[in-house]
């Protein structure tokens, strides 16, 4: 069969997302686990147009909740052209019944153990509605199909070493989406890390781990990093703040070429951290942890969330200064979102706080889909935009670049400069996160009707 794998996307910035540095791994991984006698294409809607008039026999669409309206629109368009259309991913895993209104079949959960059977059934014209994927043991996974990526990605080598996370933050679906903590055999992983068929040196040099929480199992991560030392790569991932208290791990991270770590710091409010069940984060230790990474020359990227029950507009905007004070190099600023499959969703549903006149486009991380505790939804949206404006003001972006020249290693500095310039430029040109209300008739590329919650 000819198969198109489409990673659906809806614009998250007012004038678009001009480029993307790093591709998702989902599409090229699905392509790699597809039996070789099929012909596969991978299309990333974030950076390229989707061809509805494709000659594919089967279209497989992956999407996050925030992009569901566009995925459903695409599915309808493909089906009206007689295509068989299937879906999977974090949204579908929790909303299979809803998705089946638009798709011929869906995979709920991980695909490794059911995707080959789905393809056989599709060929034989006997697709089931729902394929329940069990957690993969992550053994024998192939190298992602980097060869199918379009050349516009700056850092194409995305890798996954582990799945799962032992923590249980209220807003996160990882514990139910990828239960347990599973690791790929080190030698199989190293084969991917050594893959070097890219045209530019930086593409061969940088490895980006798209893991949930890579450093959880210390013996495992240490053996991976030992094996990476001779390869002289630059690498990045996300991890928990506790790594800052492990000097042996930090030294090994430096020796193996770590240039950046993303921490989910989320909040400076102790009560907000308790709301988030983020028991592993201690506000008093933030600066110490960031400093420990800086001493190894590693760039600290950090996520912050606006909208916990103990947040106020003032505490949200204050994060712009606080994150500077603790030394964060690149901030990522989101609005709390009650995704299905999370304790947060269950609690909000129970308390009747989900705004059910707001469609899935409000679930893109930059909009408000619930009734906040201490303010109106509009006040939360505006507080987030003020935080955004302050944190990415040209002055703060330049300060984060200049000060990091004193402590970041060259690769880390380069990346920090690129990311701050990227966000600073967006801010300077007024390219703020899009307000989901503006989709209707605004002239923005993607338009969609709100799809109501089940
Ligand atoms: C890496 C990652 C990112 C990366 C890359 C994003 C990307 N587009 O891939 C970055 C950092 C950019 C990112 C950003 C965001 N992310 Co993110 N991210 C992840 C993370 C940690 C891993 C995803 C991954 O690559 N896994 C590895 C691949 C191989 O597995 P997979 O995608 O799950 O696919 C498997 C199955 O789902 C299935 N499958 C998936 N699609 C399909 C399609 C078909 C047809 C089939 C058959 C099967 C199938 O098969 C695959 C193999 O088993 C997940 C957590 C998680 N465990 O899922 C969060 C997660 C996906 N992210 C999430 C969110 C909310 C976001 C943001 C909106 C956050 C924000 N506030 O800005 C942004 C959106 C950015 C964007 N432009 O897309 C949520 C999504 C929740 C939801 N219900 O939609 C998750 C689940 C984390 C959470 N908070 O719960 N993210
Ligand atoms: S937010 Fe991070 S630490 Fe918390 S459960 Fe999700 S992956 Fe784990």
Summarize the structure.
The protein is an alpha/beta fold.
Written account of the structure:
This protein is an alpha/beta fold and 454 residues long. The protein folds into two domains: 2-133, Cobalamin-binding domain (Rossmann fold); 154-428, Alpha-Beta Horseshoe (pyruvate-formate lyase- activating enzyme). The chain has 17 helices and 14 strands. The strands form three sheets. The protein has a six-stranded parallel sheet with strand order 2-1-3-4-5-6, with helices on both faces. The model is unreliable at 441-454 (pLDDT under 50). It binds cobalamin and iron/sulfur cluster. Cobalamin binds at residues 24-26, 29-30, 46, 60-62, 64-66, 86-91, 107, 110-112, 115, 160, 172-174, 177-178, 210, 212, 334, 339, 364-365.
């Amino acid at each position: 069969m000819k198969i198109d794998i489409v990673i659906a996307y809806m614009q998250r910035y007012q004038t678009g997302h001009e480029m993307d540095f790093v591709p998702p791994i989902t599409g090229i991984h699905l392509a790699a686990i597809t039996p070789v006698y099929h012909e596969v294409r991978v299309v990333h809607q974030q950076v390229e147009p989707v061809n509805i008039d494709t000659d594919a026999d089967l279209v497989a669409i992956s999407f996050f909740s925030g992009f569901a309206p566009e995925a459903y629109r695409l599915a309808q368009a493909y089906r009206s052209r007689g295509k068989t259309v299937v879906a999977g991913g974090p949204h579908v895993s929790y909303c299979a019944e809803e998705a089946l209104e638009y798709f011929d079949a869906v995979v709920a959960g991980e695909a490794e153990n059911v995707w080959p059977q789905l393809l056989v059934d599709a060929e034989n014209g006997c697709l089931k509605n729902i394929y329940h994927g069990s957690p993969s043991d992550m053994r024998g996974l192939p190298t992602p199909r980097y060869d199918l990526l379009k050349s516009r990605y700056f850092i194409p080598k995305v890798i996954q070493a582990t799945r799962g996370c032992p923590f249980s933050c209220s807003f996160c679906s990882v514990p139910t989406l990828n239960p347990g903590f599973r690791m790929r055999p080190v030698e199989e992983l190293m084969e991917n890390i050594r893959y070097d068929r890219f045209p530019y040196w930086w593409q061969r040099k940088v490895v980006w781990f798209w893991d949930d929480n890579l450093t959880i199992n210390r013996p495992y991560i240490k053996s991976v990093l030992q094996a990476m030392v001779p390869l002289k790569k630059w690498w990045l991932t996300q991890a928990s703040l506790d790594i800052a208290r492990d000097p042996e791990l930090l030294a090994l991270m430096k020796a193996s070429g770590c240039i950046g770590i993303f921490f989910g710091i989320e909040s400076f409010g102790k009560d907000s951290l308790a709301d988030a069940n983020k028991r592993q984060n201690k506000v008093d230790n933030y600066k110490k942890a960031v400093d420990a990474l800086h001493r190894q020359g590693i760039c600290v990227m950090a996520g912050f969330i606006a909208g916990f029950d103990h947040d106020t507009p003032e505490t949200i905007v204050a994060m712009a200064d606080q994150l500077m004070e603790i030394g964060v190099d690149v901030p990522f600023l989101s609005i709390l979102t009650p995704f299905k499959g999370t304790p947060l969703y269950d609690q909000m549903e129970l308390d009747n706080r989900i705004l059910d006149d707001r469609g899935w486009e409000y679930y893109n991380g930059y909009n408000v889909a619930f009734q906040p505790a201490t303010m109106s939804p509009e006040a939360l949206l505006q507080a987030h935009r003020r935080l955004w404006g302050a944190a990415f003001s040209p002055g703060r972006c330049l300060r984060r670049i200049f000060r990091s020249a004193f402590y970041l290693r060259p690769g880390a500095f380069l990346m920090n400069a690129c990311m701050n310039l990227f966000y600073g430029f967006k801010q300077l040109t007024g390219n703020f996160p899009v307000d989901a209300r503006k989709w209707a008739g605004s002239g923005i590329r993607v338009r969609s009707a709100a799809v109501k919650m089940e």
